Structures are given as structure tokens and as C-alpha cells.
Structure to design on (819 residues):
């Protein structure tokens, strides 16, 4: 009898992975889709909010200390608290959720974009100016490409953070991979194997999704970072990517590695 | 520009303030000791600390109290906190020293805390508790006495005593907006059969698996909802969902003053699916004593569904605190002092 | 504003006055959890990072492991530990420490690695032996990056502490949660704002500490 029960539980789990409902929780593909949808939208909004300002300020060389400190202030936002405040203010609103999670991603994107641009060798920028490139041409044709490894590292960090934090959205019944975790919790982890399956399954799936997202963005990074830069600075960039830090120079208030 | 000496002074002051804060916290708290931050030295050294992490708050040292100490707990549900506070006040009135540990988590978290001795007593609901302990075997009925007896048997296996149940019951109930009730002509749960396919039910995440939830309604009433949304257990998410139209039918708790405040319609449980849910104190046998039982019983004796509903309304609509409401109520009822 | 929240006084100054004690106590709890987690995390992270920075073999696996551990959602860790360690500070502290550990290991390695090799060579040539090398050369130069890591770990932990309200701990997370349960915006917002304020204050304190400990870095980046 026990053996049968075990088998059917594994069978149910596989069915769940294939997309069938498991004990009232939506199938895994749907959960992943919901989770990704919210994560991608939030990451996109975070980029829209953070990148233009960071690139502009870094290019102009303005407000170095203030910028980093404001980025850190965004990191100070407790996601859980913001989520609950947002729900009280706006109820069920996916738009609001996107905003909440975007704010979580702003800090690493802003900080890394700023630092990425700042650490570009000023002589190169001067040379470009000397060649007649305008300010914005300098930014887009010189600074951004050269700073792109660091900028992308920031975006990847933000992605990992956002994917992990979107788990909390299940507290206000959004769905996503947090739903089985919350579902397992309310069924009682000590008292039911299906509860444990839900909670652990959800956690593992979020972790996998996080890693996959980072890897996917890594592929994007390979496309964006200019080949010459890649080859010449391979070692430096690789270390920067591996450690997700800014290159070399310890700036005061450097916002280095970042994760949730 | 400040000199290096001024900077050193400011930094030292800041560090000193933080250490003072942490040290003050240490002195007051009954928790683990905290660590010091880096010492300002000329050489850079790694952070220097001493740690003393403890796992449990040590028992408070009090001058010999008449009755000893008890820990009263509650789940993260304000009705629970309210009743638990009443227990705490009554026990204190009887001479006990009471440590309050409220809002600890769901039943799944609090019940083990009771059996393991982290807490000594908390309020339970006879039907749900029984079904929880027997893993959904369906033994709970509308008969308070019978259900309580079965619960006693189960709990005694774990060294827990179930005291006398109060008359106050907080059952699960299905609630709809007045418009929905009008449109489909709903006053009882039976009225839902045949109509439920067009409606969305919202309730706690485990509802699809609980014998008193979706499966129960299907079996006892032939009511099968078109869709189910996992929300929370009668909390703000469910309330907002019903209010905003995300769901059509909500599983709420019958003492929730929100129902009346919004003029929602509580559907009558005409087939008596929901068992008795009398509020009852459950206490560890080892921690129990005649005086404790007497104090707890004195609270149970004055609770009724009506006054609990009214007090929940005060909590949720008037935003009073559980401590104030409990104090006021027990004083009015003559249980205290 | 949602259903019941409408019609409520906001900001509810009276609530704030009545609950001043609770707010203070929870604040102490919040600070304690944060400081403990970061301190213990650092104690563990530092030797690990040192090892990884000295022996390259360990570095990649260590970073990969910490990277993966980091993707585990905090909610799952807190909830998963309750059956094991009960409803105690420990249950909250273990995952909090793990997360700070992960951040601190990465940053400490980055910091130690950021010391230019030429400097180390020069120091060795001048006769510095290992421990003196570490203390007087590497650490001072690595310090800004290491402290940047401590800042991030601290600020992040403050946010995570609020989540522990779901298992009965939580510092200001408790008023956030109970405000939410009663659909009262004031306590939720108060808890939120205080958490952010605490994070900013601790961050600034750490910046001040960094400036104090490595004044040359401030000069260099000018």
C-alpha cells in the first residue's frame, strides 16, 4: 500500500511537471510562465528606469557619490514590505506588481551601469572626442560598448534578484513558482508529503529558473559585448563576469557584487 | 575639508552610538548576544567579535511568583490573538507569570510548538483541530461534545489537555456579494448547486484538498465551482478578492465582522457540512494545574459567537488592538479583578 | 485603497502613539538579527574567501556553489527550517546568515583579488611575510571592496528580516504583517519606512567606517 502511494505521488509529480494540476496547484509550465512573465516585465521596467539616468550621469561625470548612494538606497527597499503596502494601496494589480519588483532590480542595474561607464579609460574617450565624435556618439559608440560587460553584469544580477523575489508575489495570490511554496506551507510541511513536494519543488524550480535566466542573459552578453573587447580583455571580463563585480578600481562606495 | 582628526572623531562617535544601541539591546533582550562592529585601530584587522548565539530565550528570572510561568501562544490570526490575550490576562489575574508569543505562524507551525513545549497553551477550534490531527479522516461533526471528546483522545496522545469548549464558534462559511446573491437567488449553500459552475471560489491554498472545503462541498452539496483561486485563510487577500470581483464566492470565517460591514451574504450551511468549531483552550498536561484550568475556563464560560463576532468587528473595522479589546471585555464580564 | 482600508484615518497618528513601545522593541529585534547575521556571516566568509583567493582551485567551485545557493528563495529556507529548529531566533538567523555569507564571500574574494599583483610582488620583495603581507598590504587595499560587500549584505539582510515575520520573528516585519492582516495602512507603512531608514542609516555608518579605515582610497578616486 505504501509502495503504491509512493509511486502515485511520483507519478503525480511528473504529471505536474508536464502541466497537470497537482493537488489544486497549477501545472509547472503555467507557474513558470507566470513567474517569467512578471520577472521579465519587471526587469524591463527596471532597465527603463535605471539605465538612461545612469548612463547620462556617468557620461557627464556628475554626482558620483550621490548616484551610488541613491542606488544603495533602492537596495534598502524591503521587497516584502513594499509588496504588502502596494497591495493595500492598489489591490490586485499586475501593473503594481511589476512596479514593485522593478524597484528591486533598479539598484544593481543603476550602480553597475554607472560604474561601468565611469571605469572606461578617459583617454579613449578623449581620443574619440578628438576624432570628432559628439557627446552622445562617444557614449554609444565608445563608452557603452567598453562598459558593456559591467553593465550586463548588473542586469544579470538584477535578473537573479528579481526571479528570486517574485516568489513573494504568491503571498498576494499572483501565482508563479511561489504558489507551490506558499501552498506547501499552508498544508503543513510536517504533516503531508504532498506539502513537502510542493514547497521543495517550488524552491528548486525557482533556483533553476534563476540560474537559467542568468545563463540566458550571459548568452545575450556574448552577443552584445564587442568581439575585440572580448578577446583583448577576455581575462578581465571573465573575472568580472564570474564575480559580477566592477573591474579593478576600488571606487569609494563601489557597489560591487550584488545579489539579493 | 575636514581634517583627518575630525573625521576620526565623527567615525568614532558613530561607531560608539551603534555599539551603544546594540549593547542596550543586549542588556534588555532575552535573546542571543550581538557582536561588536570593527574596532577602530590603526592596522586593519578583520572584524573582531565574540558571539554567543543561544537557541531559546532563557526563562525570565522573576522573584518567586505564586503560580509559576506559562507561555501563551497564538497562530497568525487576529481572532486567535484576541482569545489568547484573554487567556493570558486571566492567567495573570490568577497569579501566573505569562509570556506572550503571538502570531507565530499557521497551525502547522504552532501545534508542534505546543507539543514540543515551546508554548504551553493556545486557543483551538474543535472541528478543524480534530481534522488536522486525524489527517482529514472526517470524524468531526456538528456535535460539539462528541467532536471535543474525539479531539481530547487525539491530543492526549501528545500530552495535551483539551479543556471545556466555549459556546463561541467560528466556522468556515461561503460568502457572496449581495449582487451575486440576488442574481442567482442565493441564501443557502444548497442554492449554489447548478449555479456554481459559473462562479469562482476563493479560499485558502489547501482548499482543494481539505475535506471541509472543495471536496466536501462537492460531496455534501453537489456544488462544483467553475474555478478556484488560492488566496489566504479568510484574510485580507480573500476579502479584497471578493470585494473587487476577482472571485464570486469567498471562504471566510463566520465571525468576521467584515461580512456585515460590507453587507455581504453568508450562505447558510443547510446540510451542516461544517462541523462544530467551538473555541477551546488546549494546554500541555505538564504545564497544567487546577488554577490554570480554572482561569482558562473562566474565559471559555463568557465567550459566545455573538460577542466574539462583535469583538472581531472592533478589531478589524474599528482597528482596536487585541490587548485593549480583551482587557475591556473581560473586565466588563467580571472575569478580571 | 482596498475594501476596508477606505475610510480609515491615515496617517493614524494615534496608532503610532499607542504602539510606540512595540515599534521600539521590534526595532531592537530588527537590528539584532541584522547585526548577528552579518557578523557571523563575515566570520565564516572571511576565512573561506581567503582560502579561495590563495588557492585558485577552490575559487570557481566556491563561487559557483555560493551562486547557486543564492538563488534559493528566502521564503523557502525560512519555512523549511521550522520543522527542524522550531520557532526560534535560530530559524530566522540561519538563512539570514547564509545569505550574508554568500554576498560576503564573493565580495571578499573580489576585494582580495583586486589587489594588483605588482603590489604584492613589491611587498614580497621588500621582505613582507605572509601574515604581515595580509595585514598591512592586502587587507587595506582590499578593504573598500570588502566593506562594499558588508554594506550590501547589511542592507539586504534588513529587507530579509521582514520576511521572517511569517515565522513569528521579523522585527518591523511584524507590524508590516499585522497591518496587512487588518488592512491598516499605517502600521504597514510605518514598518516599511523604518526598515528603509534603518538600512540607509547603517549603510551610511559603514561608509563612514570605510572612509575612516582607508582614507587613501577617497583621495585616489578624486
Amino acid at each position: 500500500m505504501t509502495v503504491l502511494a509512493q509511486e502515485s505521488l511520483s507519478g503525480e509529480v511528473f504529471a505536474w511537471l508536464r502541466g497537470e494540476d497537482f493537488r489544486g496547484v497549477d501545472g509547472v509550465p503555467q507557474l513558470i510562465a507566470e513567474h517569467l512573465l512578471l520577472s521579465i516585465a519587471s526587469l524591463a521596467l527596471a532597465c527603463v528606469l535605471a539605465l538612461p539616468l545612469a548612463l547620462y550621469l556617468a557620461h557627464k561625470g556628475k554626482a558620483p557619490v550621490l548616484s551610488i548612494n541613491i542606488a544603495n538606497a533602492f537596495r534598502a527597499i524591503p521587497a516584502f514590505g513594499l509588496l504588502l503596502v502596494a497591495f493595500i494601496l492598489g489591490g490586485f494589480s499586475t501593473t503594481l506588481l511589476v512596479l514593485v519588483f522593478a524597484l528591486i532590480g533598479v539598484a544593481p542595474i543603476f550602480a553597475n551601469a554607472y560604474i561601468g561607464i565611469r571605469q572606461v579609460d578617459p583617454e579613449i574617450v578623449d581620443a574619440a572626442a578628438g576624432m570628432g565624435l559628439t557627446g552622445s556618439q562617444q557614449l554609444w559608440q565608445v563608452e557603452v560598448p567598453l562598459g558593456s560587460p559591467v553593465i550586463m553584469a548588473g542586469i544579470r544580477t538584477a535578473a537573479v534578484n528579481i526571479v528570486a523575489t517574485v516568489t513573494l508575489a504568491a503571498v498576494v495570490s499572483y501565482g508563479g513558482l511561489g504558489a507551490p511554496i506558499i501552498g506547501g506551507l499552508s498544508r503543513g510541511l510536517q504533516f503531508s508529503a504532498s506539502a513537502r513536494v510542493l514547497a521543495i519543488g517550488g524552491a528548486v524550480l525557482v533556483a533553476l529558473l534563476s540560474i537559467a535566466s542568468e545563463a540566458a542573459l550571459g548568452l545575450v552578453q556574448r552577443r552584445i559585448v564587442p568581439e575585440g573587447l572580448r578577446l583583448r580583455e577576455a581575462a578581465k571580463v571573465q573575472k568580472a563576469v564570474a564575480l559580477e563585480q566592477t573591474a579593478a578600481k576600488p571606487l569609494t562606495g563601489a557597489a560591487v557584487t550584488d545579489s539579493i | 575639508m575636514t581634517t583627518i582628526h575630525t573625521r576620526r572623531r565623527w567615525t568614532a562617535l558613530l561607531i560608539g552610538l551603534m555599539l551603544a544601541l546594540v549593547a542596550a539591546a543586549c542588556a534588555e533582550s532575552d535573546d542571543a548576544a550581538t557582536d561588536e562592529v570593527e574596532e577602530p585601530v590603526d592596522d586593519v584587522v578583520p572584524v573582531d567579535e565574540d558571539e554567543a548565539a543561544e537557541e531559546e530565550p532563557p526563562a525570565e528570572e522573576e522573584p518567586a511568583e505564586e503560580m509559576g510561568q506559562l507561555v501563551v501562544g497564538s497562530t497568525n490570526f487576529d481572532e486567535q490573538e484576541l482569545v489568547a490575550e484573554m487567556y493570558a490576562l486571566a492567567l495573570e489575574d490568577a497569579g501566573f507569570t505569562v509570556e506572550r508569543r503571538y502570531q507565530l505562524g499557521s497551525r502547522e507551525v504552532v501545534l508542534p510548538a505546543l507539543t514540543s513545549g515551546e508554548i504551553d497553551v493556545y486557543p483551538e477550534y474543535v472541528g478543524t483541530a480534530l481534522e488536522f490531527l486525524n489527517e482529514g479522516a472526517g470524524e468531526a461533526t456538528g456535535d460539539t461534545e462528541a467532536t471535543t471528546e474525539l479531539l481530547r483522545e487525539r491530543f492526549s496522545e501528545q500530552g495535551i489537555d483539551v479543556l471545556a469548549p466555549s459556546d463561541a464558534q467560528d466556522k468556515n462559511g461561503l460568502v457572496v456579494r449581495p449582487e451575486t446573491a440576488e442574481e442567482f437567488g442565493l441564501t443557502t449553500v444548497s442554492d449554489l448547486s447548478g449555479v456554481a459552475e459559473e462562479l469562482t471560489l476563493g479560499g485558502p491554498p489547501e482548499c482543494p484538498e481539505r475535506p471541509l472545503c472543495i471536496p466536501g462541498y462537492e460531496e455534501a452539496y453537489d456544488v462544483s465551482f467553475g474555478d478556484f483561486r488560492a488566496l489566504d485563510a479568510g484574510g485580507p487577500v480573500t476579502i479584497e478578492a471578493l470585494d473587487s470581483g476577482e472571485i464570486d464566492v469567498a471562504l471566510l470565517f463566520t465571525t468576521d465582522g467584515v461580512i456585515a460591514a460590507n453587507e455581504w451574504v453568508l450562505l447558510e450551511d443547510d446540510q451542516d457540512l461544517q462541523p462544530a468549531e467551538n473555541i477551546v483552550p488546549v494546554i500541555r498536561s505538564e504545564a497544567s494545574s487546577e488554577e490554570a484550568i480554572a482561569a482558562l475556563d473562566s474565559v471559555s464560560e463568557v465567550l459566545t459567537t455573538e460577542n466574539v463576532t462583535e469583538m472581531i468587528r472592533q478589531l478589524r473595522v474599528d482597528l482596536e488592538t487585541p490587548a485593549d479589546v480583551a482587557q475591556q471585555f473581560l473586565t466588563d464580564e467580571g472575569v478580571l479583578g | 485603497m482596498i475594501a476596508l482600508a477606505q475610510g480609515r484615518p491615515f496617517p493614524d497618528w494615534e496608532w503610532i502613539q499607542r504602539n510606540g513601545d512595540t515599534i521600539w522593541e521590534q526595532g531592537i529585534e530588527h537590528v539584532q538579527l541584522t547585526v548577528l547575521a552579518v557578523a557571523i556571516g563575515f566570520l565564516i566568509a572571511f576565512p573561506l574567501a581567503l582560502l579561495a583567493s590563495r588557492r585558485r582551485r577552490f575559487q570557481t567551485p566556491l563561487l559557483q556553489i555560493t551562486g547557486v545557493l543564492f538563488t534559493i528563495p528566502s521564503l523557502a529556507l525560512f519555512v523549511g527550517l521550522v520543522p527542524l529548529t522550531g520557532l526560534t531566533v535560530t530559524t530566522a538567523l540561519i538563512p539570514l546568515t547564509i545569505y550574508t555569507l554568500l554576498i560576503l564571500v564573493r565580495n571578499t574574494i573580489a576585494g582580495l583579488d583586486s589587489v594588483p599583483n605588482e603590489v604584492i610582488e613589491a611587498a614580497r620583495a621588500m621582505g613582507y611575510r605572509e601574515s604581515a603581507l595580509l595585514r598591512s598590504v592586502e587587507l587595506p587595499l582590499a578593504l573598500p571592496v570588502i566593506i562594499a560587500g558588508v554594506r550590501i549584505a547589511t542592507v539586504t539582510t534588513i529587507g530579509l528580516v521582514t520576511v521572517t515575520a511569517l515565522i513569528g520573528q521579523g522585527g518591523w516585519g511584524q507590524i508590516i504583517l499585522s497591518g496587512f492582516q487588518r488592512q491598516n495602512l499605517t502600521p504597514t507603512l510605518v514598518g516599511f519606512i523604518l526598515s528603509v531608514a534603518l538600512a540607509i542609516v547603517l549603510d551610511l555608518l559603514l561608509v563612514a567606517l570605510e572612509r575612516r579605515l582607508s582614507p587613501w582610497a577617497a583621495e585616489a578616486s578624486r
Notes: The two ends of chain B are 66 Å apart (CA to CA). Chain B touches chain C through 60 residues (CB under 8 Å). Confidence is low (pLDDT under 50) at residues 27-64 of chain B.
